[in-house]
Amino acid sequence: MVQLFDDERLDYLVKEDDIQIIQSPTVFSFSLDAVLLAHFTYVPIKKGRILDLCSGNGVIPLFLSRKSNAHITGVEIQNRLYDMATRSVQLNELSTQITILHGDLTNMQGKLAHSSFDLVTCNPPYFKTKEETEHNKNDYLTIARHEVYCSLEDVVKACKLYVKPGGKVSFVHRPGRLVDILNLFRKYKLEPKRMQLVYPKKGRDANMLLIEGIRDGKADLTILPPLYIYNDDNTYTPEAEEIIYGRK
């Protein structure tokens, strides 16, 4: 058993699962976007190398470890979140498969080899807010949600730097940044290949975007069917329930 600090708690990654994760309401708790990204992403099953940027408390590496035997490296800039992620990996006895690094994705020289990963995933900060009045009062949440330490371009550039030629890059983001993402993917030779919009309900605007690119790939973008999360009565749709709970 690992030690918990302050208001930390142990949650199961999904119901009826044996993987646990350290969470904190005032520091970091994963949300639906992480679940959807892990489900959307194609992963090398038996071998290969996966890199997850902006790892937070390690939720994406933990999810991907359920789908793949590949080695997974997570990178997190906030020391407290890095520590939570490291302890979650230890708790689940996954240290031989998952490595968490503490560092800035814009400056990982000597820690990560260029063009060495088969897949790079990222749930980056969504908001490019410049005014401090628009930030969260909680510094942990501000850094996780706003482009304080890295911009969207920084993230895309890092993905291009570390993914192999022909390797895949998967993001979850907000639909409002779609044009920015497409332009930056093309700028850094990451050809968009798959995209899916996520809607809270039918008749509502999309509030999440899932997108995958291939380094040096050929132009051929597939738009997947829309994913709706809730029915009109606020219960999960069958598609969402299957993703979230692993069952139909």
Secondary-structure map:
Blueprint: E1 9-12, E2 20-23, H1 32-40, E3 49-53, H2 59-65, E4 71-76, H3 79-91, E5 98-102, E6 117-122, H4 139-145, H5 152-162, E7 163-173, H6 178-187, E8 190-199, E9 208-215, E10 222-223, E11 227-228, H7 238-245
Parallel strand pairs: 3-4, 3-6, 4-5, 6-7, 8-10, 8-11
Antiparallel strand pairs: 1-2, 7-9, 8-9
Write a structural description.
The chain is α/β, with parallel strands linked by helices. It is 26% helix and 25% strand. The chain has 7 helices and 11 strands. Strands 3, 4, 5, 6, 7, 8, 9, 10 and 11 form a 9-stranded mixed β-sheet that branches. Strands 1-2 form a two-stranded antiparallel ribbon. Strand 3, helix 2 and strand 4 form a beta-alpha-beta unit. It is globular. The two termini are 33 Å apart. 38% of the residues are buried.
The major β-sheet equals: 9 strands, mixed
Helix fraction, binned, reads 25-40%
- The rough form would be described as globular
Estimated radius of gyration: 17 Å
Structural class given helices, strands, pairing? alpha/beta
Can you tag this structure with a few keywords?
alpha/beta; about 250 residues; about 25% helix; 7 helices; globular
In short:
With 248 residues, this protein is of the alpha/beta class. It has 7 helices and 11 strands. The strands form 2 sheets. Strands 3, 4, 5, 6, 7, 8, 9, 10 and 11 form a 9-stranded mixed sheet that branches. Strands 1-2 form a two-stranded antiparallel sheet.
